[in-house]
Amino acid sequence: MSDNNPYIPMPVQIAKITNEVDTNDIKTFRFTFLNKEDEEKFKYTPGQFGELSIYGKGESPIGIASSPTELGYVEFTVQRAGTIVPGLVTAALHDLDEGAQIGLRGPLGNSWPIEFLENKNIVVVGGGFAFTTLRSLINYMLYKDNRKRFGEITVVYGARNPGLLLYKDELAEWEKRDDIKTIITVDKGNETWKGREGFVPAVCKDTAPSPKDAVAVICGPPIMIKFTLPVFFELGFSKENILTSLEMRMKCGIGKCGRCNVGSQYVCKDGPVFSLAELDQLPRDF
Amino acid sequence: MDFEPKILGIACNWCTYTGADLAGTTRLQYPQNVRVVRVMCSSRINPSFIFRALQLGADGVLVGGCHPGDCHYNTGNLYARRRLATTKKILEFAGIEPGRFRVEWISASEGNRFAEVVEEFTTQVKNLGPQTKLKIQE
Amino acid sequence: MLKKTAIEKISQLAAVLMEKGTLLAPVKEVAGHNFAEINDPQKVDLNFYNTIISPKGAFFPPKEDFIKYKIGKTITEAEQIKVDSKPVFLFGVRPCDVKSFSIMDIHFNAAGIIDPYWSQRRKATTIFGYAYDLNQPVDAADFYNSLGIYAADPEGSDIFMVKKDKDLLLKGITPKGEELLAQLNTLVDAGKDDEKYYEETLKKGKEYKTRFLCIDQDVIAKKLEAVFNNNDFWTKVSSACLSCGACTFVCPNCYCFDICDDTIFGKGTRRRVWDACMFTDFTLEASGHNPRTQVYQRLRQKINHKYSYHVKKYGVISCVGCGRCTRSCPVNIDIYSIVEEALKL
Amino acid sequence: MTDFKKIEENLKKEAKRLLESGEVTVVLAYGKGFDEKHPMPFAAKSVADVDNIVFNEYCNYNMARYLVRYPQGTKIAIAVKAADSRAVIQLIQEEKIKKENLVLLGIPVIGMKNPKTDEVIDSKTTCGMHNPVLYDVLLGEEVHGQKIVSPYDVLAEYEAMDKDARWQFWKDQFDKCIRCYACRKACPMCYCDPCFIDQNKPKWADKAPQSPGNIMYHLTRFHHLAGRCIDCGECSRACPVDIPLYLFHKKVAKECEEMFNQVSGMSIEDKPVLVNFRVEDSDKILE
Questions:
Q1: What is the per-residue DSSP string for C37-50?
Q2: Which of A59, A225, A259, A284 should we substitute to test contact with C (largest number of C Cβ atoms within 10 Å)?
């Protein structure tokens, strides 16, 4: 049983911690596997998530932020939760140093449908902290062997202020590249901010990506999604071609514990990625 | 070996804790069985603290506060008196020896009194023996 | 093979089974009967209608320890808890509850990742089904007939038992049951009239009527989907609901659980415990968002899960009509009536 | 004996009048269940709903439980038996509801029964009063001339127990608990969200249904209801495994009554005893 018990986490070590934002409450953790064979087992696709597991505290489902093309490690960007519900795991994780060992279960859930995305133009729209699995997708598509499998890539990424943008170094790198169109926006800039100001929906409208052979991948806070979707409908994107990732309270991550269902679908196993067309089939219970 | 009880002392910052300090600085001898935790006022004591302490292995719980009328916050200990009296009755009806829980008013100047109370209470708990009812078995 | 024993001598049978493994059987408690691990063979009591809590705990216990660890030690030093592989005898399960195991099997033992705890426990267990006493009146809350289950259905049991006056007839149903039955030397061979009685009971079981409602699973699944947004309906049926977990905890088909870390004295256990979709914090996310804050949303989730989502996902209604939820509900909410009303909409 | 049919008629009549005139938007009363013996709590929101109202000896529910579910300011009429009216008073004391938003339909009753056992529960598991303490409309004849039985009489047996035996008794009872939380959900005075037991910081007890956590949950709950419990017996009636919670609540209520000289839920002028004090409270109570 021990080898195939889906409830037992595999041991990983924190190899690197990156502080992503000014407020110090979002960090990216790079984990390496203590057992080489676990790395084999942890074959993932962008859009999947893992259960970060700290004994004595609990488990947290977190989207994988690294791309499968990055070998030898896996990265998670974690926000310290706790304004309303005290987040035990994320708080404990934030207090750990490099070298500490924790548990990881995964990879869990479905993923961004890579085959479906192939040979299409991809519009990635992200808001705030929800950019993590999108980063995984972008890095996967930009990987030298993969790039030719996808059409044009457009990224619209917004945050409330410049200090809250994740992965700043990578964003700068992408902006330099010519095989990806990167548009970064903030709701409100500061003295040093030279980039764009404005909300994501408005920026999407300005950018006006063509719906022809295109798929929009949208992740962000509910308010952003609410105002961005009409923009894409107006542009002519069909519901089948708009993808998003749902969030629900999860525990087991393998469709057993029964709490993350939306209709007959378990977000942890049948999701978290759904197209709007699929979501229309489900009751509004999320 | 003699049974040495573990006693949790919860002392109010303004009176009993200072009183305990005084007992220390005046080098009064009293049993070392009491581990004191400081709270700002005896009314800050959640009754669950007492249940939890007994569950985690305390053989007795001693609560100290200012004399009624002397509360730093005017009325805190008057609320505490009613609340802790109820706690005692609950422990009693659950079948836990009421002698394991005691509330005393000890002022900042009563170092002697603190030593006395600890002495008395420790003996009392010692006589009751180890608290096994609520204690969680390891 | 049909065997028999006097019900008076049931403790002898219990003692034999206890020697062979763990015996789970109904015992009398203050509020009624419940399944419990038997330490004293005299405690086994077959004089019951049905237990308060379903026997699902035999495979899906209220708490299942996964891992034990020490705080401050590294993760690799944690110790996995193995399931005891001793044979288990689950004694005296009513036909509707036996049916519930096969429904739960789809979720835990067939679809997607196999749950190792459920599957191991299931493998190690021999189920002694036990027909309802057809001479006793049926409880008003039961409605297993509506789900196509009858009072004396041996299906799913390894050994099926029927009460005949002062005797208990035991029939091997599966090879596993036959084999065990052959080993139980406290039993005697049954006579011809016993055979006849057994067969007749199975037949008569069909006429032992509980409440009946014609439930076509696809119709009810579609219906509930259609009335999902009918807030008036859901508010009305949930106006009495207290949102406690009694119904889900006694239910033989509710499988929701929580995984939690319980720590004390520097040691901890990661375990799963039963959870209920009726609790407010069941779906409370770390962000503070909660998709089901209202009582009607939670009750809707419960009914839909059993009669709609489960049908869509696994092709069968996740309810066996044992009537426990109705009996245990502090305010007598009756799932049967709700389904009935939903069908009328 | 109480004329249940008469009360049912009056209840329907009043409910109809109140809903028709628009005086209230909800009438909290009792409705038909799946059979006679199992009526349900019922919220009538329109005149059409009134037909569903019933009243019989099994309508034990304390409808005050549902008051806090409606937004502040909702005009509600509520059917109250003796203990239920005390719950309403207690809720008013705790400022969860306002008297001016309520119409209390008082039901004087004797002979309420436990549907499981069919035994009369008047003073055994509930407060033993027959007439509502506070009401706007009385739906039946006041009950008088009954032998007054103290609700605390049932305690004698347990008070006489040796403390070790009493501990064993309670431990066995709490070990049965499956933590379905029906007790706190059925209780009209348990309205905290989240309940202390659901908190994860501080985490007071294990989530698993096992002895230490169960004891912590129940002891603390008894404490939280000290001086507030109005002895309606709903917690023990709701319990699927029949833990006699009412005994402990009665004992705490009795002690509070003796110590602080105030019975819970008797006057809307009172303050709950544990959020109140008197300078002249005696230190004797601590002994």
A1: E-SSGGG-----S-
A2: A259
* Domain of residue A146, CATH code: 3.40.50.80
Q: What is the pLDDT of residue A2?
A: 44
Does B97 contact D163 at a Cβ distance shorter than 8 Å? yes
A vs C: CB pairs below 8 A: 134
Q: C80 and A8: CB-CB below 8 Å?
A: yes
Give the model confidence (pLDDT) of D35-74 as tens digits. 888 999 999 999 999 999 999 989 889 999 999 999 988 9
HSE of D12, CA atoms in CB hemisphere, 13 A: 15
User: What is the count of residue pairs from A and D with beta carbons less than 8 Å apart?
Assistant: 5
B60: Cβ contacts below 8 Å, ≥ 6 apart: B5, B6, B7, B8, B99, B100, B101, B102, B121, B122, B124, B125, B128, B131
Same domain, A190 and A209: yes
User: In this predicted model, what pLDDT tens digit does every residue of A38-70 receive, in sequence order?
Assistant: 888 889 999 999 999 998 888 999 999 999 998
Q: Minimal Cα distance from B57: which residue of C?
A: C265
Neighbours of C74 (CB within 10 A): 15
Nearest chain A residue to D202, by CA: A86
A285 has pLDDT over 60: yes
Q: How far apart (Å, rounded) are the C-alpha atoms in residues D249 and D184?
A: 13
Quick: pLDDT tens for C283-310: 888 888 888 888 999 999 999 999 999 9
Mind listing the pLDDT tens digit for each residue in C83-113? 888 899 999 999 999 999 999 999 998 888 8
Rg of chain A, C-alpha, whole Å: 18
| Tens-digit pLDDT profile for residues C113-122 | 888 999 999 9
Q: What is the pLDDT of residues A16-40, one digit of tens each?
A: 999 888 888 889 999 999 888 888 8
Query: Span A137-153, mean pLDDT?
Result: 88
**pTM: predicted TM-score of the whole model, two decimal places:** 0.91
Q: Name, in order, each residue with C-beta under 8 angstroms of B54's C-beta and a sequence gap of 6 or more.
A: B61, B96, B100, B131, B134, B135
The rounded distance, in Å, linking the Cα atoms of D129 and D146 is 10
Q: Is B1 a member of any domain? A: no
User: Tell me, what amino acid is at C144?
Assistant: Y
Give the pLDDT mean for D18-31: 92
Chain segment D178-230, per-residue pLDDT in tens: 999 999 999 999 999 888 998 888 889 888 888 899 999 999 999 999 999 99
User: A253-279 burial by CB neighbour count: b if 16+ within 10 A, else e?
Assistant: bbbbbbbbbbbbbbbbbbbbbbbbebb
Domain finish residue from A107, A142, A173: A107
**B134 inside 8 A of chain D by CB:** yes
Q: Is residue B21 part of a domain?
A: yes
Q: Would an 8 Å CB–CB cutoff place B84 in contact with chain D?
A: yes
Number of domains in chain A: 2
Distance CA A63, CA A134 (A): 10
Output the pLDDT for position B101: 93
C-alpha span between B42 and C125 (Å, rounded): 55
Tell me D101's DSSP state.
G
H-run or E-run covering A181: strand A181-186
Report chain D residues whose CB lies below 8 A from the CB of C258: 207
Helix, strand, coil shares, percent, chain B, to 5? 45, 15, 40
Run of H or E including C204: helix C192-205
Residues A200 and A130 in one domain: yes
Chains that touch C (3 or more CB pairs under 8 A): A, B, D
Classify residue B2: in a domain, yes or no: no
Q: Which two tokens stand for residue A142?
A: 């930009």
Average pLDDT, chain D: 89
**Residues in Cβ contact with D14 at an 8 Å cutoff, skipping those fewer than 6 apart:** D77, D105, D137, D139
